[in-house]
Amino acid sequence: MKRIFALWRVVASQDLRVLWFAIRHEKRPGWLLPGLAGLALFAVEPLNFALPVIGVVDEFVLVPLILHGMVKMLPAHVLEGFARSYAGRMRRRRFTS
């Protein structure tokens, strides 16, 4: 169970930030918004409430793996833009702290 929470911590810290940046990027790929909408529907599907064990597998294993796969499929210019933006934020935090 600790490994599953560690996987979610990694996804929550990096992949969700990258996807949030990609959604707001002016040259985002066309598949990104429908893909994230489909993933959101998959994450809150009614089957999660009917079969709780399958819902746990969905939430803690499949959803993070799909999110990570979406990040891997993003074009290089979006990832480079995120790297530049994130590096600038980290420098500002380091100097202000």
From TrEMBL:
It comes from the Bacteria. Keywords: Membrane, Transmembrane, Transmembrane helix. It comes from Massilia litorea. The chain crosses the membrane at residues 31-54, 60-83. This is DUF1232 domain-containing protein.
